[in-house]
Amino acid sequence: xxxxxxxxxxxxxxxxxxxxxxxxxxxxxxxxxxxxxxxxxxxxxxxxxxxxxxxxxxxxxxxxxxxxxxxxxxxxxxxxxxxxxxxxxxxxxxxxxxxxxxxxxxxxxxxxxxxxxxxxxxxxxxxxxxxxxxxxxxxxxxxxxxxxxxxxxxxxxxxxxxxxxxxxxxxxxxxxxxxxxxxxxxxxxxxxxxxxxxxxxxxxxxxxxxxxxxxxxxxxxxxxxxxxxxxxxxxxxxxxxxxxxxxxxxxxxxxxxxxxxxxxxxxxxxxxxxxxxxxxxxxxxxxxxxxxxxxxxxxxxxxxxxxxxxxxxxxxxxxxxxxxxxxxxxxxxxxxxxxxxxxxxxxxxxxxxxxxxxxxxxxxxxxxxxxxxxxxxxxxxxxxxxxxxxxxxxxxxxxxxxxxxxxxxxxxxxxxxxxxxxxxxxxxxxxxxxxxxxxxxxxxxxxxxxxxxxxxxxxxxxx
Length: 463
Hints:
CATH class of the largest domain: Mainly Alpha
Oligomer: single chain
Largest sheet: 5 strands, antiparallel
Low-confidence stretches: 417-422, 449-463
Order of helices and strands: HEEEEEHHHEEHHHHHHHEEEHHHHHHH
Number of domains: 3
């Protein structure tokens, strides 16, 4: 208390005069209490001696108070705080060290609260965060496209159906392996083996994302494999034979399938495009005069240009004749618009049209086509993706090399070294391959083009 008696050299008037005047040096009230001007304002300081080194140090008062400057903290408040600090010092406590401990304690408390908040993130909220950062299409720092083309909508749909009903509102940190395996087992028991594996892969990726961000302490599925979920999936090998393509050409007109869907069958066979790529096609990306279809975004993240054979162009001409306009009089931009003309048709719609026409009569679905076996072929059930595989197989039968077929189908080269150093996509050879495929399809479907197992070689280029 003796130190406090040395205070009170200043008055409110002298402090105001100091603030209004040009003097930039510290103003001393005695007992180590100072008022110092700074760019952001004027602050009260206590001059203290470091007990370890004996050095004089400035201790700013009211450091954590947003209103800690003069005049919010006037002379009377500053003296009261100085008296408190000197009393604290007289007990052997260093105010600077005490403040440091208080700051560390606050930081620890803030960290604990943040950790607790992260632990309160529900599984659904975690999915939304993961989808925004990892699944949404975006360009990375390296200039390459990242994320999924559909923005994660397919995996979200599976989570909505099989994960969220039971676990969506459960905190991610509280979800156990047993909880997740129960959901996967339900999918497996329903015969959805691929769905179970897709869910397992998505869940493992999502929890790995959460682990890095300290939302969970461990990945509950880190040791779970496909063997514990849907099991090893058998690769489909179904392709349509030449005779089946002929039979398909005869069956499609009587199947009462939507004209656009009928054209889609032939376009997948003629281009080897993925069904999602075809259903999302826009007229602005198709140049019928040049005979090209440009895909700016594809499953593997790189763009792709497909050469359109005469066969493919003929079916696109039929689709062009079906073009419609919006209520505003603008042309609908999608080649396969939905019924509301607000976007592309759902790819599942096309798949259902094919599947519904490959059923036995006793398996007809309510309010669906009665022509249940109109597209049944001798080799058994076939899907839209089987058409893509058939396109590749037909090219191979025509003598086209595998590496050119890979380029036609926009497959990524497996070798990292080849991907880096071989940048030529071989467009001329792709064009010849697509033309040969189109000629084959023309002949199989009743047009006059001759079928040849020899791919024409550009002699000028070869020379």
